[in-house]
Amino acid sequence: MRARRWAAAAVVAASLAGAALLPSAAAAQDFSASGALWYVDAMKLSAIHDAGIDGEGVTIAVFDDGLNRDAVGLKDADIEVRPLDACPDPTSVAATDFEGSQHGTSVTSLIAGNGTSDSGEGPVGIAPKARILYYGVIQDGCEGNPYPAALDDAVAQGADIVTISGGAPRLDDELTQPTIDSVTAALRAGVVLIAGLPNRDTIGEFELMTINGVVNVGSVGSSAQLPTERDGSEMTNEDVDVVAPGIDVAGVGFDGTWGMSTWSGNSAATPLVAGLMALAKQSWPDATASQLLQSLIRNTGPEAHELEWSNTYGYGIVNATRIVDEDPTQYADENPLFKDDQQPSFDDVFSAQEVPSTSEPAPDAPASIAPWLIGGGVVVVIVIVVVVVLASRKKTGGRRDV
């Protein structure tokens, strides 16, 4: 394992319009005026969809709780509910049981929603033409550990991406071997695994968050602000890989109706990352899963930069435009999200495959945090104080707070 080399970046704000970094401080662009659909403007989804990039041909497995399949926002979505012996049918939840299906319906709507709801406007899906395989693995009625069976089935059904926004927390440090084995098999099959990190009111660790090779997702708001702990401090997590819009974004069911409401948390950010990976895969069908992950963490912010990590923003805020535009086959065909102290090991997953040589990122400008784009090509971004970790074949263990 290579030694970490630490550095710190000063707190600055920049306006990038073909000009140098501005020395004066300023806030990142605030998209709150766009309401619950601010993420659509911030991620430039309309332009991406207008270009025909909408997730078509990509299969996403969604692991969640109950699903209101009759929600008007999912009318046109290609959704197949997959049965699991250990869990009840997620669509059997009554339409009036908002608590039982608001989460899963909102997660799915952020991937494949058609922009409508009972109140008119609704969640706009980031990959509306993607095929959805739905697994109700985090329902209260599930017995035992349903993750391995669901993962194995998703791989068998041709899933390209698996996303899970939560789950029953583990209160001990031990992972179940069947889960590790199923994750290993999924990674070997070239499946991208994406998991939401716990929010501040969650006790314990989710089943997938400390498993190697999985993208761990945090959330930010419309001005790139981080969620806060109960004492008002910014949330940190030693396992965060990227962050995405997830504060006050569009959902359904959270106000006791199937009209559009807002919700917040890492659960909301996670399906947006899953949808974004679907757009990237559609755009670059010859790229491997590992190259898509390389592209995800290297193309945060508004321009090329060295690979940087902090326990607040991870490798940065995802940038939909850059991930769609940048050819991921330029990067090493190697999953970059491995730690030496987590399972499965890199060799456990890839020992039977040819392991490509490691490549280091080009020494470009330091990473900017917020990639929100403004008309005319202007970008207002924040570069926060970060602890920098230079890229290596594996993420290293250890802790470092910022």
Description:
The chain is built from 9 helices and 14 strands. The chain is of the alpha/beta class. The two termini are 23 Å apart. A hairpin with a 2-residue loop joins strand 4 and strand 5. Strands 3-6-2-7-8-9-10 form a 7-stranded parallel sheet, with helices on both faces. It has a 3-stranded antiparallel sheet with strand order 1-14-13, with no helix packed on it. 22% of the residues lie in helices and 16% in strands. The N terminus and C terminus are likely disordered.
Short description:
The chain has 9 helices and 14 strands. It is α/β, with parallel strands linked by helices and 402 residues long. Strand 4 and strand 5 (120-124) form a beta hairpin.
Output the structural class. alpha/beta
Radius of gyration, taken over Cα atoms and rounded to an integer in Å = 20 Å
How many individual helices? 9
Provide the succession of SSEs.
EHHEEHEEEHEHEEEEEHHHHEE
Largest sheet, order of strands side by side? 3-6-2-7-8-9-10
Write the layout of secondary structure elements.
Elements: E1 12-16, H1 38-42, H2 45-50, E2 59-63, E3 78-81, H3 98-112, E4 114-117, E5 120-124, E6 131-135, H4 147-156, E7 161-164, H5 177-188, E8 192-196, E9 215-220, E10 242-245, E11 249-252, E12 260-263, H6 266-283, H7 289-298, H8 320-325, H9 346-350, E13 373-374, E14 378-383
Parallel strand pairs: 2-6, 2-7, 3-6, 7-8, 8-9, 9-10
Antiparallel strand pairs: 1-14, 4-5, 11-12, 13-14
Helix pairs in contact: 3-6, 4-5
